[in-house]
Amino acid sequence: MYETREHLQTLTEIRSLMERSSKFLSLSGLSGVFAGVVALMGAAAVYWRLDLHYTAYTSYDGTQILFSDAKQDIVRFLMLDGFIVLLVALIGGSLFTIRKARKQGMSIWNTTSKRLLQALFTPLLAGGVFCLGLIHHDLIWLVFPATLVFYGLALLSASRYTVRDLHYLGICEIVLGLLSLFLTGYSLLTWAFGFGVLHIVYGMVMYFKYDAKPENETGVI
Fold this sequence. Notes:
By secondary structure, this protein is mostly helical. It has one domain. About 75% of the residues lie in helices and about 0% in strands. The longest helix is centred in the middle third of the chain and has 37 residues, at about 70-105. It is globular, with a radius of gyration of 20 Å.
């Protein structure tokens, strides 16, 4: 009986070592919560800037009646707001992840993390260029669902190198992005829900599932 337990413990340790070598396990749940809060703040800034008439800028019919100067001003604000949200979320997420990696005694920069970043940023860069094309052709209303879809694809791609939970978040983002194509008058709300609420929920699940557990109880599914 004692030998059986010892063998099981050995197998568990071997599995843990294999997972650590093939998956990046230092993603922090607090990173998700932080990104979600920042996204909600960015969406609130857009809502305030558009003077509560956000549907006029996030639907096809609304963008057709905007004057050229007003449209350019709004586009510049949306791009600046999106860039600030992305930058702050990345910086905050990186800091939380680095802190978790140090607690685990793991390196933040290794072969697995490089593969994860490549898998993540390839769809993101493609989506960024795609959205710039939409803006160039005055299809502002399509940018909101496009960001959700491409972000979801990026998460699906990156989930191969980290915890499985990221896979489910990616699916939710894609589904929400596709739905928002048919709810264009509510694009800002769906964007806030996808990047804000879903991130917070995902981050809390990650935190209580992995971060709040002792190191030897943390597992990967």
